[in-house]
Structure formats: structure tokens, C-alpha cells
Specification:
Elements (H helix, E strand, L loop, with lengths): L1 H10 L16 H27 L6 H39 L28
Helix pairs in contact: 2-3
Length: 127
């Protein structure tokens, strides 16, 4: 075990980078999402073990392989989505703080006039 930790130390990669925000500090949204995903992985294995060992039910590989990834993707998606919404709102607040201007959605473009069907312009084919 010690050699594995030495190997990780030599990589010089921060494995907690996904839990840190733009400013470099830990963010509660990312930390809770990461721990939620780890808790989900552990709890699914424990519940399957409980069903197989204590209840004596047969292990259903199809149900496990279809339900487990879907739940994990849902947890990761919710955590990533909430972190991205928060990051966007923080960036918008920083722009407002620096410039005093409130970011707005781009304009919809020019309005195109429409004619009622009975006043339709004839086409080149004479229709």
C-alpha cells in the first residue's frame, strides 16, 4: 500500500481538482456531488449483497447493469449541472461587479412581416 501512495505522490496531480472551483477552494456543491456518487456506489453494492446473502435472492445481472449506471449518471449529471449553473451565475456577478452592466440575452433579430393567406404574393410559376 505504501508503494502505491508513493506512486501517487510522484504523479504530482491534484486528484481533488474536480472538487475545487474557479478560485481554487473547495465548493460545497462539488464536494457533496462527489461524496454522493461514492455513497451511491457503496450503497448499491451493499444492498445487492444484502439481498443475495441475507434474503437469499438470486443475483440479477441484467437489473444491476441497467439500474446502476443510470443512477450514477443521474447523480453526476445533477452535481455537474448545479455546479455549472453556479459557475455561470458567479461569472455573471463578476461582470456586473466590474463593469456595472447587467448581462442580457442577445436580441432576437429583426421582425419579419407576414401576410395573411388571402393576400399572398403570387410566385414566379403563377400559383
Amino acid at each position: 500500500m505504501r508503494s502505491f501512495l508513493d506512486f501517487l505522490g510522484r504523479l504530482r496531480m491534484p486528484f481533488d481538482g474536480a472538487l475545487r472551483g474557479i478560485g481554487g477552494e473547495y465548493e460545497i456543491t462539488r464536494v457533496l456531488g462527489g461524496f454522493g456518487a461514492l455513497a451511491y456506489c457503496a450503497s448499491v453494492i451493499l444492498f445487492v449483497g444484502w439481498e443475495v446473502i441475507w434474503l437469499g435472492k438470486p443475483f440479477d445481472l441484467v437489473a444491476y447493469c441497467t439500474a446502476f449506471p443510470g443512477g450514477l449518471v443521474f447523480i453526476i449529471g445533477v452535481a455537474a449541472g448545479s455546479a455549472s449553473i453556479k459557475d455561470r451565475n458567479v461569472a455573471s456577478a463578476r461582470v456586473t461587479e466590474r463593469t456595472g452592466a447587467i448581462p442580457a440575452a442577445p436580441p432576437a433579430g429583426p421582425e419579419v412581416p407576414t401576410l395573411p393567406m388571402d393576400e399572398a404574393v403570387p410566385t414566379a410559376r403563377g400559383e
